[in-house]
Amino acid sequence: MVLLKQHGIDPSRLGRIADIGIHVLLLFSLCCCTRIHSNSTNSIAERQKTGTANREPTDHPNDPTSPEMSKTVVGKVWKRFIEDGRYRLANENDFRIPDWAVKQDHLDRKDIEVPFILSSFGFAAIVVDTTRDYAEGFGLVILTTDEGNEDGANEKNVIHWFCRNKDLSRTVLGGAPGSAGLYTTVYSEDGSSVLCRIGFDDHNRQYVCKTRVARNPPKGG
Predict the structure, then answer these.
(1) Which secondary structure element, helix H or strand E, spans residue 27, and what is its range?
(2) pLDDT tens per residue across span 88-143
(3) Does the residue 61 lie in any domain?
């Protein structure tokens, strides 16, 4: 104190300056922590909402976001379907397909990366509801578009739900134009699976599972 006064420094003033400095430092630290927490929270929420939906279009021929597909009617209808942000196409990070199924059934990884296939009904896709953050947030949608329709992307009554609010994390889409139709296969870790052949129910005017074929796990497995 005496030394400070000898140099013309008021100790009480120095104390006030120190107090102000401490308050400024605390305020700065609080703002930084708040900003980090906010950014972290937003980042987690964004990942839950979009997964890897913002990735670059793949080289899969049926990727609805590819330059080629986006010019088609189905590509434009797809864009209309996802434009409000509620739904996105599922991707490999959403699925938990057992390794045994990939090897035994020779599954194409691209069909898991881009679950958007052409069937006898039109294109079918496994989608994720971005408003839900639990396992039952999947859905299967069928687009019955007509490339020759003059309405193009505004074509009505072409988006049909086979199912919504289901856990499809172990489900693989299959099918092709013609007799192959459209089907799903649900794989379990125990080596079993259930194949569902999808068809249109004329009476109820909706897509349903027409037949189910169960495969039991291998003996001793």
Answers:
(1) helix 11-50
(2) 999 999 999 999 999 999 998 888 999 999 999 999 999 999 998 888 999 999 99
(3) no
Residues 27, 33, 39, 41, CA torsion sign: negative
What residues form DSSP beta bridges with 194?
Answer: 186, 214
**Alpha carbon distance 55, 73 (integer Å):** 22
Calpha distance 91→74 (Å, rounded): 19
What's the structural domain count of the chain?
2
Q: What element of type H or E holds 197?
A: strand 193-201
Which pair of tokens denotes residue 78? Answer: 């797809």
User: Which domain range does residue 32 map to?
Assistant: 2-50
The token duo for 185 is 């296969």
Tell me if 26 is assigned to some domain: yes
**Residue 144, CA atoms < 13 Å, CB-side half-sphere:** 13
Express each pLDDT in 185-220 by its tens digit: 999 999 999 999 999 999 999 999 999 999 998 876
Question: HSE of 27 in the Cβ direction (CA atoms, 13 Å)?
Answer: 6
In this structure, the answer to whether residues 45 and 73 fall within a common structural domain is: no
pTM: 0.73
Same structural domain, 44 and 111: no
Type of residue at 197: R
